[in-house]
Fold this sequence. Notes:
Elements: H1 5-30, E1 37-39, H2 43-49, H3 56-66, E2 74-76, H4 77-89, H5 98-108, E3 115-117, H6 118-127, H7 134-144, E4 158-160, H8 161-168
Amino acid sequence: MSESKPELKDEAEQIVAQIQKKLTDAFDVFDGDKTRSVDAKEVPTIIHSLNLVPTQGEMRDLVTEMEDGDNSDVIKYEKFIAVMTDVLLNKKFKPANENKIYKALQMLDTENKGYYTKEDLVNLMTNEGEPFNTEEMNEMLQTCGAFADPASQADNPHILYKYYINDLVVEDTKD
C-alpha cells in the first residue's frame, strides 16, 4: 500500500528539518558571537565538516552564492541554510569511495610502480586539473610522508598510495 500525499509531505518536511538542524549545528560552531553570521573564510571549513568535498572552484561558487551584496566578507545564516539545504538534498559534493580513489591513483601511476615520488606528486598536483596552491601542496606532502616507503630516499620518498587511500576516504555519515 502506498503512502498518501500528506504522509509523503510530512516525511519530506522531516528530512528537510533534519538537514537544516545538521546545517545549523555546523554553522553555530563558527558563529561564536551568535550574530547569525560567519566570516566567509570559515565557510569552506563548515562545508568540509559536513563531509562534503567540492573542488576549489565549486567552493568559490558556493561562497559567492551565499554572499550578501552589501558585505561579501560575511555569510548570513539564512543564505547559508538556503544554499546548503539544496546541496544536501541533492547529494552534491559527496566524497568518492575507496575503490574509485584507488583506480584513479592507479591510472596516474602509468608505470604501475605502486607508489609516487614526492616529485611525481608535486608535478601532478600543481600542473594537472585544478592545481594545488603552495599551502595545499605542503599539507598533502606532510600527510603523505606517513605513507613513505622507509627504504626510499629521504629527499624524494616513495609514497605507497595503497596505504594513503585510507587518509583520502571520508566516511559517509548517515545522520
